[in-house]
Request: fold
Amino acid sequence: MPRLDAADLRERMARDLPGAVLEAVPLQVAAAPTHGPQPGAFLTSDTLVAPSRLVEAACYLRDLLGYAYLSDIAVVDYLADDLFELVYRFYHVEGGEGLTIKVRIPRDHPEVPSLTPAWPGANFHEREAFDLYGIVFVGHPFLRRIYMWDEFEGFPMRKDFPKQGDKYIGADE
Amino acid sequence: MLKTEELQINIGPQHPSTHGVFRMIVTVDGETITDLKPVFGYLHRNHEQIAEQNTYLQNMPYTDRLDYFNSMANNQAYAMAIEKMVGIEVPERAEYLRVMMVELTRILNHAGALGFLINDMGMWQTQLAFGMREREKILDLFESASGARLMCNYFRFGGVVRDLPPDFIPRLKELLQAMPAFVDELERLLRENEILMQRAEGIGILPRDLALAYSVSGPVLRGSGIPYDVRKAEPYSVYDRFDFDVPVGTVGDVYDRFLVRIEEMRQSRRILEQVLEQLPDAQGGHINPKARQNVRPPVGDVYARIESPKGELGFYLVSDGSGKPYRYKVRAPSFINLTPLGDMCRGYKVADVVVILGSIDIVMGEVDR
Reply:
């Protein structure tokens, strides 16, 4: 079984793909609460990759390290930090723990290269991220809403999406 | 050569074999499928956002509603994520109880899935009733342990909500004793069934390399010949103590996925026998008495996954230090297993679509979230 952990991956990737690995900046996660203890900053131990080098880094994981199974793509909206974080999780088919790479993109320009041409399995993950967060995956062959209807406006999983009221109710009257 | 024109037809959203509300836009050339686009989201309720409004414990019964066939497995993945995040220890006995419930879930899921699949092939009700009969027995056991048949809500952080009732173990032993006859019967129904063989063999082939590229998991991945099972690949709970095999297929067609499920039921029975053997010696109670249920995990993220009956089920959670998750993401196996549906159906006949879809074994509650 392959035994690579997050620190090994960061080291190897920084060596083999110069310039692709970024220094992780601690995240505030949420706006400071008005009462109670202040939450600590969130400093990730996973490898942070430059958005423009994402495909290269993913192919490095697959072709050189053998982590060929793309298990999950999750998006997190860090509103207080004004960025989206995409979490890509890869596994080795022989087993063992997975490796994670993260990509941070600004909230006002959420664009990232698509993995779907290289990994057909990323298709629905990316469509879900587009539907619920409005992340634009450049190069995706069929980037359409997957859950919400096509005419829906807004991205419901964003932290600033209004949770009270529904503009569709009473719109016809 | 006769010149033909391509035609688009709609299967669903309301169709008895789509296992929920699921639509497929199929492009056909004569009877042959040239393209298929799945359309779903009819049951979408933004599960993930609702979960962000709930406390961590309130989400435990809510995970039952994802894959309503396998509520116990959903509970386990979610409980594991929280335990990893907060650092709660689970007593040995509780781990055995969890494994017992999840393996029972696997048996009932596969019994149901196989029954539905044969039903989809047009052999109405008889075989489905066989599967449902076994499922009922397991649901009765769940009811005696958790109080509910489907929405069990049995797991808690650090263990399970209550210990087994006194008559549970004898009833389970009885069920396990009767099980091989049922599985053999089900296998005979399929291996000696002309209709099924003709409609399953060589249909919906998903080759090995494509299965991996499409990130499918569970019986679909193993049916294509990749022996990947989270219970073996990254053992969690007490799975490293059991002796069991991971069945794999050879071709990756509907028939292989069928056989893999049958064999998995036998392997689950093997695990259950070992659980019954080891359970009396297990240390601790059914729950860690020090485990708090109103957890406030430290700031950070965590991912925990299990081998649910349908594939790899994972929860990705981000905590901001409060009592509610900042981000709650479900890696739903049926959702991802649908990705290659278009490729699996291309070149086959329209009538094969329902069979191929049935062999993936989806639950719309989990696909649409």
